[in-house]
Design a protein that fits this description.
The complex is a heterodimer of chains A (322) and B (271).
Chain A: H1 3-6, E1 7-18, E2 21-32, E3 36-40, H2 47-55, E4 62-67, E5 70-71, H3 76-80, E6 83-86, H4 98-106, E7 110-112, H5 114-127, H6 143-154, E8 161-165, H7 173-186, E9 191-196, H8 199-205, E10 208-213, E11 216-222, H9 223-227, E12 233-240, H10 246-251, E13 256-265, E14 268-275, H11 278-291, E15 296-302, H12 307-315
Parallel strand pairs in A: 3-9, 3-10, 6-8, 8-9
Antiparallel strand pairs in A: 1-2, 1-4, 4-5, 10-11, 12-14, 12-15, 13-14
Helix pairs in contact in A: 4-5
Chain B: E1 8-9, H1 19-31, H2 35-62, H3 69-96, H4 101-106, H5 108-113, H6 119-154, H7 160-187, H8 191-212, H9 232-237, H10 246-267
The chains are: A alpha/beta (322), B mainly alpha (271).
Chain lengths: 322, 271
């Protein structure tokens, strides 16, 4: 299948240099259609720079990028017709109300019919929970309300791609919960590319993740693959009873590369079984264990990593993350 | 976009993309707030208030002096030209100083540029809306009130054509400073040079005109009364032949250049 049909964003060696300092270094990124793509990295990693390059707010010093198959430099306006954007610190015209701001934003895309536009504005205000504040000037809005308005204006045009720069960073836990819920609701209709350093949010809503460090991409993978770790496929097994040669029997299988005992106490034993053939392990590993009838398997499953573990191992302990 | 069938899509292309919407917003800032009448009142007091004071004083002094009504009216036109030309331009510079810089600094320019709007549309909407508002408030309204004051004092309507032509030159003089301020807003990130450079150029006419030599012809200084000279605008109002039109053409060239540089620079702006 053509890349244009499956990929929404594609960058090739995308580079941005500010006064001799590489803010972004040869970034190669692919964002699949209809994904919620989490763009991770510590502060200063180049996340916002990447977003600005994609939106045409800054010019690349090297490489190229395309959205919907169109070049971000040559076709920026055409691209922006189909994109919604929420900035890290969203700013609007303070004298306008939320409704007026949405009306103003909608006029960049639609010139009518008025009734349909007003209906769209009302629905959007409802979606982000700003109906009761719709006709108040923005200058009185809290950080969370501004963020909600930001999401509202970003998706007023039914964008095919929603770019959100730290959408939940300024919010309290309730606000974050609401924003993530809105994102999950929107995933049916659009691709969401969002930057964040709140790892629990990423783990909750993203299906694909990229990690950036010092302007360089250090990982990009579906979240499941990333959480499986980079040590190959490992199964965790916990059981009660005496293994009596079962460990050696398991270790002798051609698709098993190692069996390590993790803990041995309180009558339970835990193993980590590293395998080279995932299908064979799925089909036979549990059966092999149960052949020994004195064993009571209490836990069995593929080892999952916490995103924070993965992130820290890749980015390094010295970086601060929440 | 799934909504394409429900909505009528904006069908603007090239530099016009977003222009109508941005112009609507800029006009709203002027005309749907107190701003227009506050400005109108300030300029009425500064320009026509000064003309009224001058005419009232002249009436009181006339009995003991040799001056004729015609001489007083000529002086009144000078005063009006100075006030409208210098203070009008100062007001314009003040009004224009933050329109680009403030939006670059507070992030609203980046927000607008993330929508399908062209960069020229952003600059031109600001230029058109602000120039229009300032010309109406500072030139057209003040010109009309000034004309009526002169007519009232002289007892008959002064020739309208020359008066309008003179006001058009005052508008051209003001446009030089408005476009200069706009351009500086795209070049700098602080208000200091954006307001300082145009004010410096405007007031340097008073001190440097005598030393500027041929260079003075290339500046708008000679359009309004300055350094003892009547200025081209007043000459036109009085129906006198113009000694030169070079400053008028030079000012037009400057204006085009300033707008061109503003468009070019903002086109390269990174947010």
């Amino acid at each position: 299948m053509n890349d244009n049909n499956t990929l929404v964003i594609k960058t090739q060696d995308l580079t941005k240099t500010f006064k001799g300092v590489n803010a972004l270094n040869a970034l190669n990124l692919t964002v699949p259609k209809n994904s919620i793509f989490g763009f991770l990295g510590p502060n200063g990693a180049g996340k916002t720079t990447t977003i600005k390059l994609l939106l045409g707010l800054a010019r690349p010093t090297g490489g190229s990028a395309s959205i919907f198959g169109m070049d971000v430099v040559k076709n920026s306006t055409e691209i922006r017709k189909r994109v919604g954007y929420l900035a890290q610190d969203p700013r609007y015209y303070e004298g306008m109300t939320a409704r007026e701001t949405l009306r103003f934003t909608a006029r960049f895309f639609y010139r009518g019919p008025n009734q349909a536009v007003e209906e769209r504005i009302n629905n959007t205000l409802e979606l982000v929970g700003l109906v009761d504040k719709a006709d108040r000037p923005i200058k009185g809005f809290s950080g969370g309300e501004r963020q909600r308005l930001g999401i509202a204006q970003a998706q007023i045009n039914y964008p095919d791609l929603l770019i959100l720069d730290e959408p939940a960073a300024a919010l309290d836990p309730m606000g974050r919960h609401d924003v993530l819920e809105v994102m999950e609701r929107l995933r049916k209709h659009t691709t969401i590319f969002y930057s964040t350093h709140i790892l629990s949010d990423v783990q909750r809503v993203s299906d694909t993740v990229a990690i950036l460090k010092h302007g360089q991409l250090i990982a990009q993978a579906p979240i499941e693959a990333l959480l499986s770790g980079n040590e190959g496929v490992v199964y965790n097994v916990t059981f009660k009873g005496t293994a009596n040669g079962t460990q050696a029997h398991v270790a002798s299988q051609p698709w098993v590369s190692a069996v390590n005992t993790l803990a041995n106490g309180g009558g339970t034993t835990s193993w980590q079984v590293s395998v080279t053939d995932e299908d064979a392990a799925e089909a036979h590993l549990l059966r092999l264990l149960l052949e020994n009838q004195s064993l009571k398997v209490t836990e069995f499953g593929r080892k999952k990593y916490d995103l924070e573990e993965v992130f820290m191992s890749m980015v390094g302990e010295e970086q601060h993350v929440r | 976009m799934s909504a394409n069938t429900t909505f009528q899509l904006v069908n603007e292309h090239g530099w016009r993309r977003g222009f109508a919407n941005l112009l609507w917003r800029e006009n709203r800032v002027w005309w749907r707030s107190r701003r227009w009448w506050i400005n109108m009142l300030i300029w009425l007091v500064l320009i026509n208030g000064m003309l009224l004071a001058m005419l009232s004083t002249a009436t009181e002094e006339m009995s003991g002096s040799q001056r004729t009504v015609e001489q007083i009216l000529a002086e009144a036109r000078m005063v009006f030209g100075v006030m409208a030309g210098i203070f009008g331009s100062v007001g314009g510079i003040i009004a224009m100083q933050g329109i680009i810089i403030d939006e670059k600094k507070n992030g609203t320019a980046a927000w607008i540029m993330s929508k399908p709007a062209s960069r020229p549309a952003f600059i031109l909407s600001k230029l058109v809306a602000n120039v229009l508002a300032l010309l109406v408030i500072v030139v057209v309204v003040q010109g009309a009130v000034g004309y009526l004051q002169l007519a009232n004092y002289g007892g008959s309507l002064p020739p309208l054509g020359p008066f309008i032509a003179g006001m058009a030159l005052i508008a051209l003089h003001m446009l030089f400073y408005l476009t200069l301020t706009l351009m500086l807003g795209t070049l700098f990130s602080d208000r200091g040079p954006v307001i300082g450079i145009p004010i410096g150029i405007l007031f340097s006419a008073m001190f440097l005109m005598g030393y500027a030599g041929q260079f003075a012809y290339l500046m708008p200084w000679m359009i309004i009364p300055s350094g003892g000279s009547q200025g081209l605008a007043i000459q036109v109002m009085l129906g006198q032949p113009l000694a030169t039109t070079i400053p008028i053409w030079a000012t037009i060239v400057w204006i085009v250049l300033f707008v061109g540089v503003a468009l070019w620079r903002f086109g390269r702006e990174e947010f």
